[in-house]
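Structure (tokenized):
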């Protein structure tokens, strides 16, 4: 199916629109991450809808307001150590080591010159609120171990959803998240070595699933993305077809399903 990029841009994210400004900020953050990963030879690739955008639109899906990256967990841990010292001054890493109330098991790199609050409300208790790029770690484990990690870590989300005072609840959330990271997840990783799987999934505590062998990911290849290039996984088309079916066909009623409900951009 032929995609009319100019027509879609005019309809959903024309220059100067709030969505286009968000995408431009995300692209700015992405380019800084990409530069650091390339300099340190850290392999990564676009994830989910971001990968779909790269293949079908050579950039963002016109109505999309997020940008997601993936990498293997050892590379993720290395990147978490590098980013605080190497990001430009107008960006900041959001991870439990830099934002004590941040309990997600994937990281965000945030733009400092914007404010964004999401519909789920979890971010109200975090220190950083700028427009962001998500970075997801992947690790090898059986599906049942991944699900088991969610049984324990999932209580952090429940605590905040049901709390009358989310700020007060954060003490318990931080404690449970720390117990998972330092005790329960290491035990589950030992089990994953015993019950070996050839499949990789989102890391423990991340409530999304992606059952793929390593050969689907590496080596990555770079494709056009907006005014630059970005890496996608080796078997991108195969994985997109599995997830979306005829991924080159536009949805019947395309439109924005924004993660954010309140966005302010400075400068």
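Design, position by position:
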């Amino acid at each position: 199916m032929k995609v009319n990029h100019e027509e879609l841009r005019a309809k959903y994210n024309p220059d100067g629109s709030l969505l286009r400004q968000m995408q431009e900020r995300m692209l700015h953050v992405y380019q800084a991450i990409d530069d650091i990963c390339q300099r340190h030879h850290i392999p990564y690739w676009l994830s989910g809808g971001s990968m779909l955008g790269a293949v079908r639109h050579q950039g963002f899906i016109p109505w999309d307001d997020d940008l997601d990256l993936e990498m293997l967990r050892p590379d993720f841990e290395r990147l978490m150590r590098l980013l605080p010292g190497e990001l430009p001054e107008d960006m900041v890493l959001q991870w439990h080591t830099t934002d004590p109330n941040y309990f997600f098991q994937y990281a965000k790199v945030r733009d400092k010159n914007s404010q964004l609050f999401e519909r789920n409300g979890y971010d109200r208790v975090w220190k950083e609120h700028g427009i962001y790029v998500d970075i997801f770690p992947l690790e090898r484990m059986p599906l049942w171990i991944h699900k088991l990690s969610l049984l324990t870590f999932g209580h952090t989300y429940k605590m905040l959803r049901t709390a009358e005072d989310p700020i007060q609840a954060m003490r318990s959330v931080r404690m449970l998240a720390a117990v998972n990271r330092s005790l329960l997840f290491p035990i589950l990783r030992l089990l994953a070595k015993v019950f070996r799987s050839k499949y990789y999934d989102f890391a423990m505590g991340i409530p999304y699933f992606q059952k793929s062998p390593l050969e689907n990911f590496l080596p990555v290849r770079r494709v056009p993305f907006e005014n630059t290039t970005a890496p996608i996984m080796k078997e991108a088309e195969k994985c997109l077809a599995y997830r979306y079916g005829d991924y080159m066909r536009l949805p019947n009623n395309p439109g924005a399903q924004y993660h954010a409900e309140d966005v302010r951009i400075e400068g």
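Reviewer-requested clarification: Residues 166-194 form the longest helix (29 residues). The two ends are 38 Å apart (CA to CA).
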